[in-house]
Amino acid sequence: MPPIPSILLRMRGRPLRRMVVRPLLGLTLAAAIAAPALQLSANSSVIPDSEKALFEERVLMPSPGEIFAALDRMGGRDWRDAASFDTRYDYPDDVLRALNLGVRAADGFLAIQARDKGMLGEMISVIITLAEELMVGETLLAEGRRIEAMASREEWNALRMELDSLRRKVIAEMERLGDDDLALLVTAGGWLEGLRATSATLAESYDARASSLLHQPALVDHFIRRIREMRPEMREHPAVQRLFAELEAIRKLIDVGFGTPVPPENIDRLRELSATLVEEIEAG
User: Fold this and answer.
1) I need a labelling partner for 237 at 20 to 30 A (CA). Which of 11, 46, 98, 277 fits?
2) Helix ranges (DSSP H) in 6-93
3) 27, 63 in Cβ contact below 8 A?
4) What is the mean predicted confidence (pLDDT) over 98-115?
């Protein structure tokens, strides 16, 4: 395997803003899949709206790493074919930077699944560059060096956790700076690329049990509601409008009942929808 290209090459000479990170609660795939059954208690009316939103995001939103870890049970796959591994990072605005950062984080997990050191290095480089453009990149340089060293030692299982930690730190810093909308878009981009890769893999080799992982209607409902609540200039961005326009169609395709396999015809349509959206996001 080729060595990881240095993640610092694009960083030299750029001003950085100090990043202070607060820890995030751990997420589990089981919680994400069971999200429709998870509700706030009858006393939720006394909980501030901001805390309700925080609860929803921590419970409903699985990380790309959790999705792919669950898909391990599908057996061997050529994960190199499951991602585009786009190395572009020069996007004109923060909406596209945030969405693409999420997509690249998911692709980083795919590189780990494929045990591809070179591509993982490329994705980390793009992730850090985009995070820097979003003004949340300074301490991620150390994270990147650590990931580079771990990949050189082929610590693949530990790398999943490390890359997820990097993604969470970016989101946490955005939230700390009051950019909840951008933080949501990072998560949405990662979820969408995870959906694209998962549906593409299932379309090639259908597995009824694994298909039930896609049953996340409560998560899609959360995205729909949060986009509606975005500040107008962000909500009206063409990329956000495109995503919003397809979320209801995605919801109908995955809402087949908890524990029920998503049928192959739905998988094919999910692959088409998600692939088109990711391609448009990456094209900017």
Assistant:
1) 11
2) 29-33, 49-60, 64-70
3) yes
4) 90
